[in-house]
Amino acid sequence: MKTEQAAVTRQTFDQVILPVYAPANFIPVKGKGSRVWDQQGKEYIDFAGGIAVTALGHCHPALVSALIEQGQTLWHTSNVFTNEPALRLASKLIEATFADRVFFANSGGEANEAAFKLARHYAVTRHSPYKTKIIAFHNAFHGRTLFTVSVGGQPKYSDGFGPKPADIVHVPFNDLAAVKAVIDDHTCAIVVEPIQGEGGITAATPEFMQGLRELCDQHQALLVMDEVQCGMGRTGKLFTYMHYGVTPDILTTAKALGGGFPVSAMLATEDVASVMAVGTHGTTYGGNPLACAVAEAALDLINTPEVLAGIEERHHRFHAALNAINDKYAVFADVRGSGLLIGAELTANYQSRAREFLHAAATEGVMVLNAGPNVVRFAPSLVIDIEDIDAGMARFEKAVARVITPTV
Ligand SMILES: *Cc1c(COP(=O)(O)O)cnc(C)c1O
Asked: Is 227 annotated as contributing to ligand binding?
């Protein structure tokens, strides 16, 4: 028997949730594929994907049945006992990548926290207690724990919390000379997003990625790739490093890994992983059977030629539509990105107004994201129907028209 539930509205948010978010003024209650409905029954086409998370759309039948099956079998064991879904998922991730070892956690920030601790611990145990410098990039985003927010390159997120973890240096992204100027034998790691997501959808150049690998090798530093946003098929290969032919020592993945169920993973080579011992690091929930069962189903679907090959066509559909809108309204200075991680940077006339486009889009019935103040971001399902792209872009065009012709 279902108990009566109290009515909640968008106003409830303002009363009960820590005021760190500014959610839209409607509440989604239902999703199917790339369509979402709010409390009032209004329909939206979802180009936001829960921030690059729902890579197979909402309530994909294969993920739903994995969740139900595991939900009726075993929910949680902790790491005092291992479990079958975690072992299967780890084996598949290893099979599909450079990695030999996997650590599971629950969020991107936690996977990165593990990665940075591992990089430091490797350098300290293998080389020297002074080999602790981490090189990272301006506008990078790696999560909100104090360590990850400090490695992130946006001081507005890390200031105001007292002393930060030390020995972290930030240099401009895609500037190899700047990295050369700061790297030395005390450097334990370079941390890089192959495509900066929150920072504005900026891809590393091939020369930059190649150069980072070479500099790491010269200085016995580890190359850590944060693929929390750009991984799991988002750019048309399972992981973005595969486009570059540059292999990391440590890689983190989260967002799309569970298709909407919270789960993350840090992947590492055997050599790097071997410095860890029982008790060096851990988490209660990491590798939870429900999370891993869903992620296994997501990986089984995403890592197929059908899904990966379909991303290119969808990418072109988005680009063509955005360029057509731009031909008409001249709002974008640049349309960029890879696969289904696309950014449309606003022209000087619309500086810092990306959120207005988000609000207008919601009004017209399409969910989009921003990436910083000047970039409208699209991170839809990797299997979004072409008709949904076309219908959503028609709505987005109306939203653009709405922003540039304000009603008096
Ligand atoms: C979202 C994101 C994170 C943080 O993930 P959370 O799950 O929010 O902790 C880290 N790195 C990148 C590149 C991200 O996009």
From this structure: yes
Render pLDDT for 58-94 as a digit per residue (tens, 0 to 9): 999 999 999 999 999 999 999 999 999 999 999 999 9
Residue nearest to atom 10 of ligand 1 (CA): 142
Secondary structure letter of residue 294 according to DSSP:
H
pLDDT tens-place string over residues 213-267: 999 999 999 999 999 999 999 999 999 999 999 999 999 999 999 999 999 999 9
Adjacency order of strands within the sheet including 28-32: 28-32, 35-38, 43-46, 366-367
Tell me the Cα Rg of the chain: 21
**The domain boundary residue, chosen from 274, 302, 330:** 302
CA–centroid distance, residue 104 to ligand 1 (Å): 15
Please tell me the distance from the alpha carbon of residue 218 to that of residue 222, in angstroms, as a whole number: 10
Query: How much distance in Å is there from the Cα of 85 to the middle of ligand 1?
Result: 23
Q: Which residues form ligand 1's pocket by a CB distance below 6 Å? A: 107-109, 112, 141-143, 193, 197-198, 226, 228-229, 254-255
- Please identify, by atom number, the ligand 1 atom nearest to the C-alpha of residue 262: 7
In the three-class reduction of DSSP (H, G, I as helix; E, B as strand; rest coil), residue 28 is classed as strand
Read off the CATH number of the domain in which 175 is found. Answer: 3.40.640.10
Compute the distance between CA of residue 236 and CA of residue 216 in angstroms, rounded to an integer. 27
Q: How far apart are CA 140 and CA 193, in angstroms?
A: 7
| Rounded Cα gap, residues 112 and 107, in angstroms | 9
| Domain extent at residue 356 | 10-59+306-404
What span, in angstroms and rounded, lies between the C-alpha atoms of 179 and 182?
Answer: 5
* Single pTM value for the model: 0.97
Q: What is the pLDDT of residues 140-196, one digit of tens each?
A: 999 999 999 999 989 999 999 999 999 999 999 999 999 999 999 999 999 999 999
- Of all protein residues, the one whose alpha carbon is nearest to atom 6 of ligand 1 is 108
Residues 116 and 44 in one domain: no
Q: What is the pLDDT of residue 406?
A: 66
